[in-house]
Fold this protein.
Amino acid sequence: MSNCVFCKIVAGQIPSTRVYEDDLVLAFMDIGQVNPGHVLVAAKPHVENVYALDDAQAAAVALACTRVARAIRAAFAPAGLSVYQANGAPAGQTVFHYHVHLVPRHDGDGMAFTWPVNNPPRAQLEAHAAKIRAALA
Ligand code: AMP
Ligand code: ZN
């Protein structure tokens, strides 16, 4: 847990671009995103996967995902939105701290821009997050 990147983000030890927060949930921009508005919705406690969520955490994540999804739609009007999670390395999970991906999908290649994974322009992330936050208000 002490080496968990998402625990460090929740604790503020690693900076993140936050879009939503409550007692149980933190939502922030995915730095690996290639689609504008890709958000991760994470449980705040270190819960490894869907199987380990308690009912209150499950409900809180679902509500946060719903609210942020609506805000992404309002901010970016994507043609579609993928909502998914991975559980276990064979399923593609790389960070073993429970989180849901909200990925706007656009027609065609649909990408307003791309950036190198793990090297996003912070100002661009912040600009997207500000639009989502405004739509949540
Ligand atoms: P998964 O592969 O489903 O476990 O998803 C892990 C996600 O976390 C990937 O989409 C990464 O781009 C993202 N990610 C990893 N490190 C960070 C970070 N420091 N800040 C924001 N997102 C991150
Ligand atoms: Zn963690």
